[in-house]
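Action item from last meeting closed. Structure (365 res):
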């Protein structure tokens, strides 16, 4: 089960520098001119989770396999993208393929790096990108609604339901609000997702600051943080330049460098975790002598479907899930001790897996 987070923003805001640091590669060219990223670059990154190391130590696991999140570096957008300006059509198509958006906003002054609008204003930058996405959604929905309205008028129940969703989304968009603000019942979430609306995707603002502001942010990033808070969106302050330098260092050198900057951990760790949370993801674990491994599922996933992430046969032949809470596993010193203490539970098909569960699945082969 793969989850993708698209890195978007205007040209020259630090998207490719950030992506390079995330993947510790130079796959995405970082240069001081628009459209230096033509094709979307994709990189898988490990999700930092100290719980996995603790489990591996207790289980004496030979291998440790973290869960991963995919980031996609998407070409910079310019005003008019919704009508094909710049690389607009390609930009919009690439965004449709991701599950969430990490919107990089430039929150630093630097005369050597040209801003496409001529001035540093992260709120205006955010509005430019959001406006283009909303215009693209409006065009898409209005085009789709023509045939659906005809079907709805002829009594097609599915078409009526779809038109209701479309009209509610159109109402938001015409107010200048993103489609993610449409209130949905649990039953409506899947058909709404099928509309593939760009502004329905969850968004995280990545506030790219100068090196001196990495620890506390600055006046520019503070304004952007307030904008995110007003929208109910997440925001992470990060210095892409620092992260690019950290990516070239080993663990000991990283720790020393972070200490000199007054930072407790790489900004990328916070970004990855924020992206993970943005997608409503949780982690469960399997642990044994051969391997300790983290597995990604959406919050609320039932045990058989969680087992299917490991292998489809696990889901098809699911019998039960022996489950130990992470805290119990660590406090008691492993599976055997947890069993002896009565802290290992047998859960059935209706059990929603919890974050941190350590699970052993039983299934028919």
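Sequence:
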């Amino acid at each position: 089960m793969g989850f993708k987070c698209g890195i978007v923003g205007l040209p020259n805001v630090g998207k490719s520098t950030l992506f390079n640091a995330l993947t510790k590669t130079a796959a995405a060219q970082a240069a001081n001119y628009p459209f230096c990223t033509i094709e979307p670059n994709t990189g898988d990154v490990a999700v930092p989770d100290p719980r996995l190391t603790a489990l591996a130590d207790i289980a004496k696991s030979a291998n440790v396999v973290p869960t991963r999140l995919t980031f996609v570096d998407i070409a910079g957008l310019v005003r008019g993208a919704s009508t094909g300006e710049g690389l607009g059509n390609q930009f919009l198509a690439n965004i449709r393929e991701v599950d969430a958006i990490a919107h990089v906003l430039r929150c630093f002054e630097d005369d050597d790096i040209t801003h496409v609008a001529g001035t540093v204003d992260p709120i205006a930058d955010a509005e430019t990108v959001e406006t283009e996405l909303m215009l693209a959604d409006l065009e898409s929905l209005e085009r789709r609604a023509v045939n659906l309205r005809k079907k709805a008028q002829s009594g097609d129940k599915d078409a009526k339901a779809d038109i209701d969703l479309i009209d509610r989304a159109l109402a938001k968009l015409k107010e200048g609000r993103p489609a993610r603000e449409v209130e949905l019942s649990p039953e409506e979430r899947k058909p709404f997702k099928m509309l593939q609306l760009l502004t329905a995707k969850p968004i995280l603002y990545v506030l790219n600051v100068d090196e001196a502001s990495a620890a506390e942010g600055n006046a520019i990033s503070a304004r952007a943080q307030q904008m995110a808070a007003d929208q109910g969106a997440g925001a992470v302050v990060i210095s892409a330049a620092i992260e690019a330098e950290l990516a070239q260092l080993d663990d000991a050198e990283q720790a020393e460098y972070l200490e000199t900057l007054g930072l407790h951990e790489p900004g990328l760790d916070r970004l990855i975790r924020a992206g993970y949370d943005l997608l409503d993801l949780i982690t469960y674990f399997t642990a044994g002598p051969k391997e300790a491994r983290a597995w990604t599922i959406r919050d609320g996933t039932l045990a058989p479907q969680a087992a299917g992430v490991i292998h489809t046969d696990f889901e098809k032949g699911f019998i039960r899930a022996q489950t130990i809470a992470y805290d119990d596993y660590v406090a008691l010193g492993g599976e055997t001790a947890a069993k002896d203490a009565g802290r290992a539970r047998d859960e059935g098909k209706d059990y929603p897996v919890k974050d941190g569960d350590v699970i052993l699945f039983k299934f028919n082969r």
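Note appended to the action item: DSSP finds 14 helices and twelve strands in the chain.
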